UniProtKB/TrEMBL annotation:
GO terms for cellular component: cytoplasmic vesicle. This is Myotubularin-related protein 13. Signal peptide: none annotated. Residues 159-185 are annotated as: Disordered. Residues 1-76 form the UDENN domain. It comes from the Eukaryota.
Length: 185
């Protein structure tokens, strides 16, 4: 599973290599808008007549990709590193399948570690219930809910959340590396 994902990660890193140099930040709106200059991207790569890439760039998924990955200051990930720093490595591995397979396995390992930072915790076994445990009558009835108390708790929570600062994600944000310009490909 992870190796297939690593292959697609590598494919999209190659496909969108240099996309950051074609992003334009438009600040005339109340909130800045990020625009992707498709013609410049295709022209600099010499792929203007490539129907597949043109359709990919015109799709809704790519528009979502640009809006999510376009901001210059956000949490970076493995894809950003591939696009920015692994250009030469990916080019060099094109004619060497063993090196390419080795790189795919390294990426798969990184994907696995990102998703399972503590593998010994992720694979704990849940014990089976003992035989006949469903026949026991030791289950206490569910207590009745006090509607007034529920409303009080809801009001308290709302009051606290309105006065509290907005919650922030734990991801460490940084300046996204631009990588090499598109014309290099």
């Amino acid at each position: 599973d992870k190796e297939v994902r690593a292959i697609f990660l590598r494919l999209f890193a190659q496909l969108f290599q240099g996309y950051r140099s074609c992003l334009q930040l438009i600040r005339i709106h109340a909130e800045p808008v990020i625009h992707f200059h498709k013609a410049a991207f295709l022209g600099q790569r010499g792929l203007i007549e490539n129907d597949f890439l043109t359709k990919v760039l015109n799709g809704m998924a790519f528009a979502g990709f640009v809006s999510e990955r376009g901001p210059p200051f956000r949490a970076c990930d493995l894809f950003d590193e591939l696009v920015a720093f692994e250009v030469e490595r990916i080019k060099a591995e094109e004619g060497n399948p063993p090196k390419m397979i080795k790189h795919v396995r390294e990426l798969a390992e990184q994907l696995f570690k990102n998703e399972n930072p503590n593998p010994h915790i992720a694979f704990q076994k849940v014990p089976r219930p003992t035989e006949g445990s469903h026949l026991r009558v030791h289950i206490l009835p569910f207590p009745r809910i006090n509607e007034c108390r529920v409303q009080e708790l809801l009001q308290e929570g709302l009051a606290r959340s309105q006065g509290a600062p907005p919650a922030s994600r734990g991801d460490k944000k940084c300046v996204v590396p631009a990588g090499p310009p598109v014309g290099m490909f």
